[in-house]
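The passage that follows is intended for readers who have already worked through the single-chain material. We present the inputs for a multi-component assembly, then the predicted structure in tokenized form, and finally a short commentary. You are encouraged to pause after the input and sketch how you expect the pieces to fit together before reading on.
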Amino acid sequence: MAYRSGRHFLQIPGPTNVPDRILRAIDRPTIDHRGPEFAQLTRDLIAGLKEVFQTSGLVVIYPSSGSGAWEAALVNTLSPGDRILAFDHGFFAANWSKVAARMGLAVEVVPGDWRRGVDPAVVEEKLSRDREHRYKAVLVVHNETSTGVTSRLPEIREAMDRARHPALLMVDTVSSLGSIDYRHDEWGVDVTVSGSQKGLMLPPGLSFNAIGPRALEASKAAKLPRSYWSWDDMLEFNEAGFFPYTPATNLLFGLREALAMLKEEGLPQVFARHRRLATAARRAVAAWGLELVSADPREHSDTVSAVFTPEGVDADRIRRIILERFDMSLGAGLGKLKGKVFRIGHLGHFNDLMLAGTLCGVEMGLKAAGVPIAASGVQAALDFLSSNPAPGAD
Amino acid sequence: MAYRSGRHFLQIPGPTNVPDRILRAIDRPTIDHRGPEFAQLTRDLIAGLKEVFQTSGLVVIYPSSGSGAWEAALVNTLSPGDRILAFDHGFFAANWSKVAARMGLAVEVVPGDWRRGVDPAVVEEKLSRDREHRYKAVLVVHNETSTGVTSRLPEIREAMDRARHPALLMVDTVSSLGSIDYRHDEWGVDVTVSGSQKGLMLPPGLSFNAIGPRALEASKAAKLPRSYWSWDDMLEFNEAGFFPYTPATNLLFGLREALAMLKEEGLPQVFARHRRLATAARRAVAAWGLELVSADPREHSDTVSAVFTPEGVDADRIRRIILERFDMSLGAGLGKLKGKVFRIGHLGHFNDLMLAGTLCGVEMGLKAAGVPIAASGVQAALDFLSSNPAPGAD
Amino acid sequence: MAYRSGRHFLQIPGPTNVPDRILRAIDRPTIDHRGPEFAQLTRDLIAGLKEVFQTSGLVVIYPSSGSGAWEAALVNTLSPGDRILAFDHGFFAANWSKVAARMGLAVEVVPGDWRRGVDPAVVEEKLSRDREHRYKAVLVVHNETSTGVTSRLPEIREAMDRARHPALLMVDTVSSLGSIDYRHDEWGVDVTVSGSQKGLMLPPGLSFNAIGPRALEASKAAKLPRSYWSWDDMLEFNEAGFFPYTPATNLLFGLREALAMLKEEGLPQVFARHRRLATAARRAVAAWGLELVSADPREHSDTVSAVFTPEGVDADRIRRIILERFDMSLGAGLGKLKGKVFRIGHLGHFNDLMLAGTLCGVEMGLKAAGVPIAASGVQAALDFLSSNPAPGAD
Amino acid sequence: MAYRSGRHFLQIPGPTNVPDRILRAIDRPTIDHRGPEFAQLTRDLIAGLKEVFQTSGLVVIYPSSGSGAWEAALVNTLSPGDRILAFDHGFFAANWSKVAARMGLAVEVVPGDWRRGVDPAVVEEKLSRDREHRYKAVLVVHNETSTGVTSRLPEIREAMDRARHPALLMVDTVSSLGSIDYRHDEWGVDVTVSGSQKGLMLPPGLSFNAIGPRALEASKAAKLPRSYWSWDDMLEFNEAGFFPYTPATNLLFGLREALAMLKEEGLPQVFARHRRLATAARRAVAAWGLELVSADPREHSDTVSAVFTPEGVDADRIRRIILERFDMSLGAGLGKLKGKVFRIGHLGHFNDLMLAGTLCGVEMGLKAAGVPIAASGVQAALDFLSSNPAPGAD
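Having made your guess, compare it with the prediction:
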């Protein structure tokens, strides 16, 4: 690869562009994880995370990737052979199901075409039929990073309520937390899973469980073997400001800065910014004459747009051209979408001109790859951004 | 706490003082963990780690603390109810046993007084008696961070060989790797567990398993549920330079720098430096008239010295005084040593004058706490350092 | 100002976007400026700078802004009352003349309209007429940052040669060095002045004089008072790798990294990249129907485009709108161009998508300010970039 | 040189150990030096600097080393041929005189033995005799970095007052500001010169003039040629928050952090800390049986101790041994003290254990060099520190 001048455009749907403030916060000497300064840090972090999860409950922090937090949600609440209801609505939903199966759970996966989110009607139907309450948990990925589809969680919650089913609702918010409105308490979620490397703008390496009271209750009877992921140890140590094992101190320094940044901007402003930029990105896709994987406008993701390439055009070739010519990384099609879609991340530490540069890169890349485009997506996006100025921009 | 000028002395036995080079390496934009630059990084890291573990076998990297790597070693090789032989030779050895019990293994713990390492004779006896080979694994902590005792692994290996027992030998090297000579292959270790935050000089957040051929074979039949820690996925993805889930990219940048630094200094030089500085620290302890927890000179740790305070003197009070007056963190007594010992970390990115400052702080702290000392430990240490100059220092 | 997410676009014509590599290189402990490590650093820097100035002569480094290096060029070579020939071809050219006048020189300034560079014919005429060789020096700004005009130095040199005039040729390359081809030796320049914060991609704080043999000779007789700027002390100390006063050590660490980056990319590639991106920017300006300050295509700058706003449109209002709405800084019109032009910096650590984002911001800003544009400049620039891929991009 | 593990001990009397907070503050993208964010920065910095100089007057900031600020003080207030009174009380005092001579001033240098500061009685005598007020300025170095002697400025001021002489009092505080109590207003100083790299804990590259009303008045009539150093331009631009030329933006970010740190600790606490640590260092020197250059205990410097080696012992050899064996840089003897003294910097971001490590290094170095020492200086220093705990340390 030739020498690259200028900044790389990291427009995969996470890990996202880490702000300098956060990188610099991480770049300081490690401190004693059993000392008084650390205890204050822990308490501040947990308080801040609760605001981001919109919960007054418990939040635990793992030194792990998001997949670890999937496993944690399961092993803390369930017992070998427990039946759980999952949905094949994307690559990560499918993977979470696989984790559940590996841990010894009986996973029932509702098939899907990956172009729609979890259907609340199906949830209601499945749970209503389950008179014996054999489903112990329902797994939903809030925002499918592989497809750019955001499931309608409030409706899913209502469906569960209508079915009067006691299954725990477990939700993966890895690519929505801190970017798309998410309400752990209001939506009656029992365990929320998340990670550091998307809306929280951190490097990967931290993951989270937000824990509702029913999940905590369930954890007392849960029989799956667990140690690293055990909530009980974690919560007991956290109480005093510490961790049962060495935490990822420097990433926690970064988390403190990330929480401060989200607070400075304000969560509603953060969500509105993502909505506005995502809408502009979708205008570009539409202008190009390309199709989103997300088939239902109510479910279009505000953090990632997965875009089908025309029949016969290898999406990975386009991505390679864009990487080589324009030094921009886009997300690949995953699983059954491999080679058929590219994904544009538009989340985290992001603004109008970063999006503009990104869309220019995609547009030039499509041309370079010989993909015919209907009209300039860049122009469509700029028109939208111009007509819809960011609030407070003047 | 009053304003603190100057550098904090972080002399707990890990996390250790992270070199600026490593902090700065971590402080750079995250890259696409599925792109070509990343694949090269992965391959370089694994090659470098093999040199540090002194193995030609396999090494896997987890985004987790060292405790995760304990769990990984167990769940990849064992099945529910498997019997394992462990030793109560320190806080971390005891904790690893607890992890094993939690994961559903039948742990037999040989009691100990925490002042000696694992006794090769006991290993031989236990294994020789076990004609049916019911012990599937033997767990040993190479260097007990809580006690400053280094078990004599080559002799333990010989004991197992004499007993002709097929149990897997699993070794925790969290506080020895990269500081005290450790030879995965030569010593016939089946799984080595380690972490990033001690001899590797990184912040916490990465852990490792070095995997021997017998362990790999065992993993094929092992039945404990596993997903996050699964070697099979990890090894398969690593082959292509990737990870089955998002790795802790920025810590991996730091790891690359750490491996480069160890290589620049040279492992034998690293070990000799730790030996020399540890000897000086022990001279100080002896001069003060205090006693090491480690009772056998063959087992004194070159990375940490755990020191008994005189009867009736609260070690934590001394540590608090030292923290408040001299801005230095020392390690606390853990478990049954709580309040009875303080621990001096002398490992990682460390040199003569850092040790000298450390010992001055301990000596002044002992005085401030009213602990009578026999003679100046500082002077004894300086005398040793002066009489034994570092090779190549001129 | 509202909270700003994402990266600021710093598109003033310098200081330019400092690469992370350089910021990180600066971010390390200061070292002894009289020690052996420092001596090596000094020697490496001077060797590297010579390559960038394309000279086999002498280069000195000042801890100062570029204006200091202007003063240095003058006080080292001239005596009170010496007559010098200067040209009013832009804000910085005018300022350099003012510095000369303040230092007690008799400056003759040839008037200009700031839309063209120094006219070689005028140089020839002026010098030819000066039979008594009263002009001791000719001052030229290679690339006028205020106007985006690059004077044709080889032709100016030829004009001086034809006039057989011994005046020293002094050239300011603050906004061309490391971006636009510049040849101190080949073009017979006597003193080249430059700074750190443009093509060298560093923060401001370092400046340079490249010194030809005639200038060095002149310095022996020069009578202007000088101390801080004295070449003689500087050269004597540099010989041993040191400085006559404390140098700006950490910025020098950054300079080492900058020189390494320029070498990795290759100077010809650096120049070609700037040419290509500048051409794209000019295509955008033309498409918008706006006019460049630079009136002669042979003199269009490859580092900065100064653009007239339509009659009656306050350029600073446009800049303010762009800063507030799109978090991008553009250069203001300076001196007599104040309020009439905005300047787009397209130099330093810069690439296609950064330029694309920049131009999108300008285009949206023009619209937001109600400036009618003829056509999409973004589209014109993207078309150019697409049709003229960067060499080695595939 | 062999690989060096651990931190270098930078114990020259400046540049000092830059705190991580300051390095990290410098390590961020440069901003537009003509934008609104910058204007706020400038105003904050000047307000903060006034507190440090203890003045309600004017302070200007140069992108230059401290030597530049010497020149600035002179060229802004004096005219060619003006007579000034200076004192040969150390290397830097001598150098400042040389600068004055080079700038065309008539410098009268009172000889001295470099073991004492400026003698107030001599000042009074010289000025009293000068009935025609031919001396236009008196130059004093507050703390001579080369000798570790702090002149008694309040007494010098009183001497000038008694002589009723209107000469401007110009004081170099490069190695005292932010470490030793210094009062620009109260002591009636007309121009104070300082730099960034000592008590302000920054890397080198910034210098300062604090300007009293009489100096400002003098600047209106001063005739020495000046441009880069001109107060008038600087003050005019500063008024609006800007600079007449590109400032060293990133170092200014560091300055903001440094000022915040000094404020957090509190100036009186900063001075007391330096006093306490310096006293401990002097106890060590005395115990070793070595002699300070500073002959008068009223003038011992709290930032640097210059120590004579015994007759016939090359101080530079000791320094070299200490650098090679213990990776610590000490200051060399300068000028006529070359080879006869080594200098220990104990200023800036500094604390008990850093001093302890430093003194251990010196003590071992003396031994390694075969210098006989009377008793352990380390022990003497530790005893002092123990008996005189830092206030607020408990």
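Commentary: The interface with chain C takes residues 20-21, 24, 27-29 of chain B (CB under 8 Å). The domain at 20-263 of chain B is CATH 3.40.640.10 (Aspartate Aminotransferase; domain 2). How closely did your sketch match?
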